[in-house]
């Protein structure tokens, strides 16, 4: 079956591919709504597989209702940054006017969020993930600003550096009740243990909501020669902390999803087995961030260790058995695409020659048995699965996966 034709069956019912004609009611949500689905049609149009008419229909769908730019209700996941990310990905002159307008609103939102973040730090308070993470926080807005950087004015480029400077400041240690904690320590309960003891907060390691998102962004900016004072030190500080919480052996390293206050105090994990190997949490996303850090810091040993950790993760049947769906977020498509990005920068060809063919087969078999996800969104839906498959077949460079912090366009 072609990548974008026909339909699969799941649980006895047909599951259509993301439609060319969007129905009314789609939201301006990058990961679950119209902008994310538009990315799939944009990729097809950019590579000549389809025309731009379908893209235009989805562009209208994502802007059918007022697009929020309120600081409390917009991030890379939704609102003005989400819509702007998709329109910028199109690279089409038809959207230049809309992007200029969105740039202005995103700049105002970003300045407001930066003021709040710096005020929080100065008050000695701990953050929550929404302040700094990829999905909802300033790292996600930084992703948009980084990839928009070549097409914006000096003021926007300055704003990008302000976001990076904030992330550098975020890595400075803090003292709470006599304990020295990393600056990204959240006051909230660990997300992977919501019914545990909420006291003391946690540090999140995941690429979607944790400190490896800022690490990847800092590294990508450095690869593009966009740096601020303390930039390299911040990358190194995060990497040392990740080294501290690396588990397993030198040949088979893995990382936890989060570290609790008790674990931090005892300097040991309460759990002793790796979790699901996914993009959002787990070894694959964390390994990609560390590979990018190694490349940014000219640290070939770190990059090689990250690649080794991913290779061993993919050879562990116990970890692979934890994957239960096809999605980008925590399924086979995300594992395939993350591995492909790591393999593209890897020092040897083991990932490309052995792991990628096996992952293609695993994804294909899952789709044959269970079909596509039952909805059309990017992160956990059919659009994301199809983008991973489509990208796997294309030789041309694309950066739609900047919204996953997997891309590396430093050579462009």
Write a structural description.
InterPro entries: LanC, LANC-like. This is Lanthionine synthetase C family protein. It comes from Fodinicola feengrottensis. Residues 1-23 are annotated as: Disordered. This protein has helices at residues 34-46, 53-62, 80-90, 96-122, 129-132, 138-148, 154-170, 212-223, 231-244, 261-266, 283-296, 300-314, 317-320, 332-345, 350-370, 382-393; strands at 7-10, 13-16, 174-176, 179-181, 202-204, 247-248, 253-254, 258-260. With 412 residues, the chain is mostly helical. The strands form four sheets. It has a two-stranded antiparallel sheet with strand order 1-2. A two-stranded antiparallel ribbon has the order 3-4. It has a two-stranded antiparallel sheet with strand order 5-8. Helix 1 (34-46) packs antiparallel against helix 2 (53-62) and helix 1 (34-46) packs parallel to helix 3 (80-90). The longest helix has 27 residues, at 96-122. Mean pLDDT is 90; it is low at 1-16.
């Amino acid at each position: 079956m072609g990548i974008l034709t026909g339909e699969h069956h799941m649980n006895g019912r047909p599951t259509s591919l993301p439609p060319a004609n969007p129905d009314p009611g789609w939201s301006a949500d990058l990961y679950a709504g119209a902008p994310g689905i538009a990315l799939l049609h944009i990729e097809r149009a950019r590579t000549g597989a389809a025309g731009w008419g379908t893209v235009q229909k989805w562009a209208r769908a994502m802007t059918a209702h007022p697009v929020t730019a309120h600081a409390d209700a917009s991030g890379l996941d939704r609102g003005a940054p989400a819509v702007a990310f998709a329109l910028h990905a199109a690279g089409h002159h038809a959207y230049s006017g809309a992007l200029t307008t969105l740039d202005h609103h995103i700049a105002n939102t970003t300045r407001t969020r930066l003021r709040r973040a710096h005020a929080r730090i100065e008050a000695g308070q701990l953050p929550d993930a929404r302040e700094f993470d990829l999905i909802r926080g300033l790292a996600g807005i930084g992703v948009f600003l980084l990839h928009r950087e070549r097409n914006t004015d000096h003021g926007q480029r300055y704003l990008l550096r302000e976001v990076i400077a904030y992330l550098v400041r975020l890595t400075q240690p803090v003292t709470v009740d006599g304990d020295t904690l990393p600056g990204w320590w959240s006051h909230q309960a660990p997300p992977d243990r919501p019914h545990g003891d909420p006291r003391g907060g946690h540090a999140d390691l995941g690429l979607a909501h944790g400190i490896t998102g800022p690490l990847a962004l800092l590294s990508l900016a450095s690869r593009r020669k966009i740096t601020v004072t303390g930039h390299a030190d911040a990358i190194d500080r995060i990497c040392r902390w990740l080294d501290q919480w690396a588990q397993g052996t030198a040949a088979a390293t893995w990382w936890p999803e989060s570290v609790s206050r008790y674990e931090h105090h005892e300097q040991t994990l309460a759990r002793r087995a790796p979790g699901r190997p996914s993009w959002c949490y787990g070894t694959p996303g964390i390994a990609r961030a560390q590979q990018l850090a190694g490349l940014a810091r000219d640290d070939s040993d770190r990059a090689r260790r990250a690649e080794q950790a991913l290779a061993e993760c993919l050879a562990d049947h116990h970890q692979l058995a934890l994957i239960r769906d096809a999605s980008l977020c925590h399924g086979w498509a995300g594992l395939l695409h993350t591995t492909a990005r790591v393999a593209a920068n890897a020092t040897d060809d083991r990932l490309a020659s052995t792991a990628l063919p096996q992952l293609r087969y695993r994804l294909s078999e899952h789709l044959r048995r269970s079909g596509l996800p039952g909805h059309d969104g990017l992160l956990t839906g059919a659009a994301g699965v199809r983008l991973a498959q489509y990208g796997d077949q294309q030789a041309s460079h694309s950066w739609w996966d900047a919204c996953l912090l997997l891309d590396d366009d430093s050579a462009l």
